[in-house]
Amino acid sequence: MTAAPATTAADSARSSGTRARTLFRVSPGLLLIILALTGPWLAAHPLDTPVTAPYAAAGDGAVLGGDQLGRDVLSRLLHGGTALIAGALLIAVVVTAVATVVGCLAVLRPRLGSAIERTADVFILLPPVLGIMLIALAWPGGGRWAVIAAAIVLGTPYAIRIVASAAAPLASAGYVEAAMARGESSTYIALRELLPNLRATVLALFGLRFVEAVYVISMAGFLQIGLQPPAADWALMIRENAPGILLNPWAVLAPSAAIAVLAISFNLASASLASRSTLKAVTTP
Q1: Which tens digits make up the pLDDT trace of 66-106?
Q2: Alpha-carbon radius of gyration of the chain
Q3: Of 42, 134, 274, whose CA–CA distance to 282 is shortest?
Q4: pTM score, two decimals?
């Protein structure tokens, strides 16, 4: 008679601990995103106005010192994350949404799945840097949009393969066969029968696509593909200030740390949310 309350209390404590760990993992990424989005209003100095000597060390006039032109590193750091985060979120959302729908349809329609698999194999073999450069050259005025388009085109095939692999065992489940027997469309089955059972996979895929998008956009920015100087961008800050890293290390270390913390924290957050989604799917009657 007393076992049920004890079990309920243990489950509640375990759930509270899981929520606390999830909040701990999500908090750094959310804080960095909030700082990046509100940064332009928090910056103490104008974006392109020199306030110190070139590569000046951190001091009272500039908390993180000056860059190669004497501009405030902290102010440019606060301005530089908005475009990166917005672009990475756009890429992650588009790639995950397209891959989820197409991957589910691929396992329900074998011919379509075979064609998608062959096409994905070709795109997966294309090096990301080469693909970005080809799209940037074909769209010279695209700027950041050319990089976003390249990341979507190159990232979607691999994501489709992941979703299709996760959905394949579910395609032969009884509830899917029952839906087919009722004459439901492939789109209905994909969205109403398969997708609810792929929540953990979709969340994990979204996190991975976001992290990859951060690195792709940063790599393109470091190669000066996309945004161009004097735009404030974390990757551009690393490239522009690398020659003076011994004079003012913060001009390089601060944007590098921002990119790393953003990617790692978002990946940990998505993994934690995915594990909670799996637990919910297993324990929900």
Answers
A1: 899 889 888 888 888 888 888 889 999 999 999 888 888 88
A2: 23
A3: 274
A4: 0.79
